[in-house]
Amino acid sequence: MAAFEHKDVLALVELAEADSLYDQHGEAVFELLRRDFMTRLQQWVRSEDKCASLERNRCSVVLKSIAGIGQLELAAAKLKRLFSKPYTEMGRSIPLTIVTGFAPVDESDKSQERAMRNASTALRAARVKARDYEVYQPGTESSLGASRETIRALELAVERGELELYYQPKVHAGFRNITGAEALIRWHREGEGIVTPDQFIPIAEKHGVIRHMTWWAIKSAIARLARWESRISLAVNVTPTLVLDDEIYWVIRDSLEIYEINPACFTLEVTEGVMVEKQNSMLEQLAKLRKLGIKIAIDDFGTGFSSLAYFRDLPADEIKIDKSFVMHMRESARDFAIVNAVIDLAHNFSLQVVAEGVEDEFCARQLADMRCDYLQGYLIDKPLPLEDFERRYLSQSEVAQRFNAERPSASRLH
Ligand code: C2E
Ligand code: CA
Ligand code: CA
Question: How far is CA 22 from CA 30, 127, 186, in A?
Fold first, then answer.
């Protein structure tokens, strides 16, 4: 690649999953991991190269006069080798994963600003493609979709405390008393007000930010349950790919343990699409999570793939009929029939049914007549900020103040 001949190359090296490492092992161990990360990087750089620590889990290195792409590949391979062994201390072994973005430095780019931007784009591309490294190519930005600013802002949203959970009540279809709530994420983006999930979840999914956000949502929801003495349940949405992520098991298990929460009060909502790919591993993973005692709900039911065999094998507790059917039940005989059939089918397989998108009284009555178990929708309430939700649905005495912020993981949640 001619563009590389005898040019300086900027490498942006990131210690992956820094927040998970911090949450899992605590501040002191994280600091040791960070030092180990820096020490190994020092073994990588040559005397002429310049290494600088940028953020707690990122370093930039200027590799002087790289002869060509071949030399860069060798450097990348050496870097990988340096991190092939886990960090070990007192019998504890923690793998360190790194991701790198490379970008050539133009002589005219004295402050290396452009190279830094390009290396950051390459780093993001590496994350999205789950590769160890990527070399910047013009056009990488457009292939990645959303603007760099938006993605960076999303990456920082958790740390800056810009994410918030709203709570939408779920009520019993017959008695209309509250039985649970769904936690729905909102982003308070600086200068833009509240951004709804439809605008940023797809970007977060595409650019590898969703993992961090989801772990935050799970921990925050479980911490919230600890403050509510009532026995209502709380549900969190999880993107299908994260269901297969081994970490999810530990995030949930550890949070339930720390906050001493009855697992039956916590529900994971996964879309029906979860079953389309890697069906067996999905079933296994859902079953494993369910063994923790938590509930699994199949979200947006009716919009994806389903068959009777699917119902038979499903390790789930609840089906949420997609709002597109529920909202049109009144004028569409077809949608009415689908809702009715899904309720019967689900009950035959001992699954409970939530109808979402319930907007009018007629619909709510029909659903109760069909023996639907729970209702969720604007008729009952919109997703509400915490204070409004607590004021409307939980009596003051139920919002326990017994929780204190001194517990280590709690302080990082809000
Ligand atoms: P969802 O899981 O299907 O959530 C229900 C969505 O329907 C919510 O939109 C809610 O505000 C809206 N909704 C509730 N009742 C009604 C109704 O009666 N009529 C109408 N028209 N809409 C109603 P929201 O909060 O904008 O969330 C949109 C989607 O974003 C969610 O759809 C979910 O897929 C995703 N999402 C939200 N929070 C998270 C999260 O923490 N993690 C992940 N992975 N996805 C999330
Ligand atoms: Ca949902
Ligand atoms: Ca849904």
Answer: 5, 19, 24
- End-to-end CA gap in the chain: 48
pLDDT of residue 399 exceeding 80, the answer is no
* Closest to 268 (Cα-Cα) out of 241, 286, 244: 286
If one compares 142 and 43, the residue with the highest pLDDT of the two is: 43
Q: Count CB-CB contacts under 10 A for residue 108.
A: 6
> Residue 197 and residue 78: Cα distance in Å, rounded?
40
Closest CA to 211 of 277, 130, 140: 130
Atom of ligand 1 nearest to the CA of 239: 44
Interval 339-370: pLDDT, tens: 999 999 999 999 999 999 999 999 999 999 99
- Which backbone phi and psi does 123 adopt, to 5 degrees? -60, -40
CA 85 to ligand 3 centroid distance, Å: 43
Closest C-alpha among 98, 94, 154 to residue 131: 98
313-349: pLDDT as tens digits = 789 999 999 998 999 999 999 999 999 999 999 999 9
Cα(194) to centroid(ligand 1), Å: 14
Among 142-146, 291-295, 297-301, the least confident range: 142-146
In this predicted structure, the answer to whether residue 240 has a pLDDT above a threshold of 60 is yes
User: pTM of this prediction?
Assistant: 0.68
- Alpha carbon 205 to chain centroid distance? 8
The pLDDT of residue 312 is 78
Residue list, CB under 5 A from ion ligand 2: 237, 269, 299
The identity of residue 362, as a single letter, is F
With a 6 A CB cut-off, is 310 part of the ligand 1 pocket? no
Determine if ligand 1 sits within 6 Å of the CB of residue 360.
no
Average pLDDT value over all residues in the chain = 87
196 ligand 1 Cβ < 6 A: yes
Contacts of 146 (CB under 8 A, 6+ apart): 203, 206, 207
